[in-house]
């Protein structure tokens, strides 16, 4: 599992772009990485463009991240797999940030 | 899902849990219980209460609640487990069992014992009076059971019956924390629901979801409320969740349900009812006005106060909810672990399978016979191969019905404990070989005879502590239950280390009762067998337990009915052993064919030791010299009065039973075969020496010989020829 931390300390926003699976086998490691990033940053932006598999555990992790007290976590560049699941769970509103917030600093629009 | 099916599951589960409680409590008598067993004890009561609540079995819920409160104090270390308390808990466990039995029999609960027991239980937890009003919250925290909202709360059928217009199914899903780790993906199930219809709405319930830093992402915190427009039947929708049903609470509300069903759904979930109400509205299952009106109506209705109470009381009690969830999770885990190891199959399906296999065996034998007659090598080889496979299938099929004898033995620790107390004796029960297996149908039938033997051993076998002390024996008596396999049979022994049978008294009593002539000369073993005669009792005083002069003969006849035998070994001062020998199965055996006067007979192969030639100088019956050993034998031709002259050279099949051997003289030895045992008609079933019949490959009928009877008969003959004195009749045909 590769979770490169792309530090941008000036803006206080950490950017992560996990790859591959966002699911039961990876959530524990991803949670560690996200918590680490949040320990030193005010905000976390997670690029989901390279997630090609997601399950209930992954979705739940996204929801948990959103609940981080005193921190802001946003998801950008949702991959097709992620969008499909958000659509199924009707969570586009809660987790599909760029679809609602046009002021998103994401580099890409969601596909 | 059918209510009766869910109820059957509840009954099964309750019986298992009660047995577990009993086992733990009995162990508590000899050694202090470790903490995990105290917890297990509590969980048993808790699970029974929770499940009973789901079925609205108030009597069970209320009584079990009192037990649970005591157990709760025990596991918290507030209450010492004293002898008196163990007794009380055992009695309470019995009472729960009788309540559950009443449910099974559809009878009203036997309340008379309940009240005093409850009062005694409550005395143990004076600080926590069991108020029924406090119950519903914990009831809802019961085990996850798949059932519809209507089934869960049949009490809510009264009044206020507003039919709602929703045209879709409403599904409420809550998962146990471990489902994700167990490889199940709730959203995948929901995705699959799309194949059954249209997902009108999905609401993800994340109310208990912790924040990132606080939660374990591998636990499932999510629940779902789903509106599904589908024409699929209930069973089909339920089947989608088949794999998670043990670790999830799944409630289905059908289209156009009445508002009570939604209220029951709200009640069944440990969540804020207002929030759930809103979700139902969001899903379009209920309109806001309908819900409001229904809740108001329920609130003023005296008949169904539970929902109202819940609404008032239930808003926000997370601590309790969390605790209930933890208990639930653990119980579900344990249950799944035991469930994955076994499958429940209705007994009649197994019987049908065995019947079919029996026919297969006969057909296979016929094929082999044809192949032999046709003389084709290739065909013979194929037929032999086929027959071998059929045999394997037969063995496997028979094994399916095999159950460990321990199932019967398990009830005895409690029986022995209670009886020993009643009799004022100190008795230890030792169980060996509980894993020995026998046919399920035998297991069911052997319980009562065994019970009688054990009671006898306790009551008559073991002496009073004073007499034991006088005889220099340890004060603590010992009764042993043993089971093991021996040559195709299962042997079950009930042994005590008591005074043994008093041969003189038995004989005197038998003479007095006219069972034997006053001048009869009987061997020790024959005298012992007299206790099996109808109307015999040796105990000087009658007790309530056994020894009213009925019993041993009943035991004997029920053992006979199972084609078994009952032997008595007794040594004065050292104890008595009752030895039951039963066939493993009543269905199919490996047989050895013999021919006499053109007819074919079958001996169970397991009983055959060897075959020898009948010496020309042997008498009509009596004994042979087998390598220096005396071998009693009998002639089948004479026994069954078969006509025709014997061939010049006859054979003797040496058979063995119960440690004794005997010879059976026959005309021809015909070799091995498989025999599917067919019962004899009522006309023939009491014919001595015949155990059953079977159909041979050629289509002929052959009789199966009853080796135990033949062996005993041969031995009796031997005695008669040498002793010449009048004997007690052996065959009571």
UniProtKB/TrEMBL annotation, chain A:
SUPFAM superfamilies, A to Z: SpoIIaa-like (SSF52091)
Domain of life per record: Bacteria
Family matches, as Pfam families: STAS_2
InterPro entries the record matches: MlaB-like_STAS (IPR058548), MlaB_ABC_Transporter (IPR052746), STAS_dom (IPR002645), STAS_dom_sf (IPR036513)
Domain STAS: residue ranges: 12-91
Gene3D superfamilies tied to this protein: STAS domain
Protein name according to UniProt: Anti-sigma-factor antagonist
Organism field: Thauera aminoaromatica S2
Automatic annotation (TrEMBL), chain B:
Presence of the UniProt keyword Nucleotide-binding in the record: yes
Pfam families the UniProt entry points to: CheW (PF01584), H-kinase_dim (PF02895), HATPase_c (PF02518), Hpt (PF01627)
Key words, A-Z: ATP-binding, Chemotaxis, Kinase, Nucleotide-binding, Phosphoprotein, Transferase, Two-component regulatory system
Sequence ranges assigned to domain Histidine kinase in this UniProt record: 338-586
Chain ranges of the CheW-like domain: 578-716
GO biological process: chemotaxis
Phosphohistidine modifications at: 46
Chain's role: Involved in the transmission of sensory signals from the chemoreceptors to the flagellar motors. CheA is autophosphorylated; it can transfer its phosphate group to either CheB or CheY.
Top-level division of the source organism's lineage: Bacteria
Keyword ATP-binding tagged: yes
InterPro entries named in the record: Bact_Chemotaxis_CheA, CheA-like_dim, CheA-like_homodim_sf, CheW-like_dom_sf, CheW-lke_dom, HATPase_C_sf, HATPase_dom, His_kinase_dom
PANTHER family for the chain: CHEMOTAXIS PROTEIN CHEA, SENSOR HISTIDINE KINASE CHEA
Domain HPt residues, every copy: 1-103
CDD domains membership: HATPase_CheA-like, HPT
SUPFAM superfamilies documented for this protein: ATPase domain of HSP90 chaperone/DNA topoisomerase II/histidine kinase, CheW-like, Histidine-containing phosphotransfer domain, HPT domain, Homodimeric domain of signal transducing histidine kinase
Name of the protein this chain belongs to: Chemotaxis protein CheA
Catalysed transformations (reactions): ATP + protein L-histidine = ADP + protein N-phospho-L-histidine
A GO MF label: phosphorelay sensor kinase activity
GO cellular component, one term: cytoplasm
